[in-house]
Amino acid sequence: MRDDNGAGRKPVTGDAVVIGAGMAGLAAARVLADRFARVTVLDRDTLPAGAESRRGVPQGAHPHALLAVGRTALEKLFPGLTDELVESGARWIDVVRDAIVWQLDGHRVRADSGIEVLCMSRPLLESCVRRRLLTMPNVEVRADTAVAGLAGQAGERVTGVELADGGKLPADLVVDASGRGSRSDSWLRDLGFPAAPESVITIRMHYTTRLVRGRFDRLGGPGVLVAAESPPGQRRYGAAFPVEGDGWFVTLGGYHGDRAPTDPEGFQRFADELPESSIAELLRGTEPLSDPVGYSFPTSRRRHFERIRLVPAGYVAVGDALCSFNPVYGHGMTVAALEAITLGECLDRSDSTDAQLARDFYRRSAGLIAVAWDMAASADFAYSGTTGPRPRGLAVTHWYQRRVVRATHVSAEVAEAILRVQHLIEPATILLRPTMVAKVLRAARQARLARDAQVRG
Ligand SMILES: Cc1cc2nc3c(=O)[nH]c(=O)nc-3n(C[C@H](O)[C@H](O)[C@H](O)COP(=O)(O)OP(=O)(O)OC[C@H]3O[C@@H](n4cnc5c(N)ncnc54)[C@H](O)[C@@H]3O)c2cc1C
Fold first, then answer.
1. Is pLDDT at 5 greater than 70 in this prediction?
2. Where in the chain are all domains bearing CATH 3.30.9?
């Protein structure tokens, strides 16, 4: 019998190389460790011993929400991880009860939902995962080792990697987890493989984030997520996530070129202009631990290896190298963890690391990715200026989405349902069940009437 971590499976042989020790690379390496004799993870960065930001992952200075499903997947891969994170200061929140969310001119109702997520910084999560991976005797993580290309037989298979220092490393399977900036398109082209077609959605989004420390007493608890979104037609948002050490990542931003300044006064002013005051109050009542730092995210980008016929054997792309999602929805690390588990399942079904393994992996991953991609895409196209492949039926989707959001102002049941979808716990179709549609429309109408009465006086 096999278990989720690979005990009891067929004998392990051969070498696997993983390019990149980010979240996708670490999760993939854990799965490969049960299925290959040796696993070598290469990263061009100097990897810190503890929970510190690093140059190769600049997004680590910005909030990283780990969805409930992602935490469960990582716990499966690294048993005991959750307890270690909590001991290191990560904070549990119930995403409905502990969240102040302002959207479409109203607050979301707050109630127990049972959807609990763990909040911490990306460097803390990554360092705990890396430490756990390093306890595996057949895994080596080599820092300061940049990959400069792929070795292989033209048009047939990848047989290893070429290092920037001129060295080579042979492998039966190369996993490209080198992130959004992956150069494997050109590396594969050099080996005679066609580039995978891409879907690109242009959102021109900007994050500006500041780390602050302190209690936010208005919310009556230590772990609370706050988010405010400007009314439709505008393109701004703000969010604050609790992290270890009584810290908060406060992020302000906008779509299509609208951005919060990085000077402290301008940052506070941008927060003051949001339609809900919680974030501005939180900034005023806490101690800054960092200057505001910016990050531009021009496009969401997805590579469709599942659509090409000449798929390279001995190579798969995972994580952001396969699909880089709009970060606002917090899907990246969760999908990367699910892809790692999928890769393990595909390896178990396959006798070799041939092209069929890669095809099988890309076909199954495409299903996982599509759920998150479609959800983000339909929300992104609510902003004028968004370009790229438009999901079908957008007008109806947006009409219904607005009613779902309004319904969450009064209905805990609808709030829980939408969060279950956003956290990839349930498919979006649960919101289309006739009983749910009726509840949404009734609650949205009730919210609208309550709001009109409030405006009248
Ligand atoms: C601003 C921002 C906020 C985000 N917020 C969230 C969030 O809230 N929740 C969430 O789940 N996800 C979030 N994400 C996405 C998340 O960061 C990624 O999806 C996730 O980390 C998986 O990335 P990865 O491991 O594929 O790539 P990365 O984390 O980018 O890691 C790639 C690694 O590859 C290494 N590397 C690159 N090139 C080479 C090379 N040639 N040789 C050797 N090593 C190389 C790099 O040094 C790096 O360590 C956010 C992203 C951004 C940009």
1. no
2. 88-121+200-298
Do 19 and 176 form a contact (C-beta atoms < 8 A)? yes
pLDDT tier at 4, thresholds 50, 70, 90: very low
3-state DSSP call for residue 416? Answer: helix
CA 181 to chain centroid, in Å, comes to 16
Q: Decide: 386 and 255 in contact? Cβ < 8 Å.
A: yes
Residue 187 reports pLDDT greater than 60: yes
Closest CA to 319 of 302, 296, 344: 302
Segment (H or E) for 72? helix 68-77
121 Cβ partners below 8 Å, 6+ apart? Answer: 51, 60, 64, 243, 244, 247, 249
**Per CATH, which fold does 15-57+123-197+304-377 belong to?**
FAD/NAD(P)-binding domain (3.50.50)
* Separation of CA 180 and ligand 1 centre (Å): 7
Confidence (pLDDT) at 218 = 54
Q: List CB contacts of 262: < 8 A, sequence separation 6 or more.
A: 208, 291, 292, 293, 294
Q: What is the pLDDT of residue 222?
A: 44
2 pLDDT band, cuts 50/70/90, is very low
- Residue nearest (by alpha carbon) to ligand 1 atom 51: 327
pLDDT digits (tens, 9 = 90+) for 107-124: 999 999 999 999 999 999
Taking the C-alpha atoms of residue 375 and residue 435, their distance in angstroms, rounded to an integer, is 22
Cα distance between residue 38 and residue 32, in whole Å: 9
Tokens of 242: 């609790």
What gap in Å lies between CA 73 and CA 338, rounded to an integer? 6
Residue closest by Cα to atom 31 of ligand 1:
22
pLDDT recorded at residue 11: 58
Distance (Å, whole) CA 201 – CA 388: 4
Tell me the pLDDT of the chain averaged across its residues: 92
Report the range of poorest mean pLDDT among 26-35, 76-85, 447-456. Answer: 447-456
Q: Which atom of ligand 1 is nearest to the CA of 330?
A: 9
Instruction: State yes or no: pLDDT of 219 exceeds 60.
Output: no
Statement: 88-121+200-298 belongs to CATH 3.90.320: no
Kindly give, in sequence order, each residue whose CB lies less than 8 Å from that of residue 424, ignoring residues fewer than 6 positions away.
67, 69, 331, 334, 371, 372
Ligand 1 residue neighbourhood (C-beta within 6 Å): 19-25, 42-45, 56-57, 59, 62-65, 146-147, 177-180, 207, 295, 297, 319-321, 327, 330-334, 336
